[in-house]
Amino acid sequence: MTIDKQKLQKLLWSEVASWKADCSEWKQSAEALGEFLGEKTVEEVALELLAENEALRQSVAEHKACIASDNELFREVNLECNRYHSVIVAVGQLLGISKEEQDEEEATQEELVEAINELWGQVHGMQEDLDEYKSEHEVLRQVLVSSHEFILNDARTRHMCDETGQVSPLFPKRVGILAAIDAALGQGEQS
Questions:
Q1: Residue 69 sits in which domain range?
Q2: Percentage of the chain with pLDDT > 90?
Q3: Closest C-alpha among 95, 121, 126, 92 to residue 109
Q4: Which region holds residue 107: left if phi is over 0, alpha if psi is between -120 and 50, else beta?
């Protein structure tokens, strides 16, 4: 979704704050939010953010699996490298291979070490990507929380809530959107 999430968050918080304070700025905040969203409704933006959040969550899961796979591969390569070195040393000692001849074999060991270091670099890069996804996930979570609060407050303003303060089942679209946001927020806490 190509929307400035930080600006959206600021506008939503501004609207929520002015609505809670019941001040005259509420209408200005609502108009600023409307101009920012253009043709889209808050609900449409919330649904797009939910879809984007799910895609990010799936990407993070894939990266975690890839990192785990690379870590296992690194462990196996490291074990193999140690075995290889032990065999070279033992065979060299048994056969009386000179130090110079064993040093020639070091090139192969150096190549293995280089490959291991390259894998570590890739794992480190994937960890940085994972950290970036986590950060973006938190920003999206905050936007969802703000959207939930805005939709609920807007429903209260429009007298769409029942006696418990929740959106009445007479407004199934809003109930569905709030349920989808709640579900996405619940999944985000699990991951």
A1: 5-11+42-190
A2: 6
A3: 92
A4: alpha
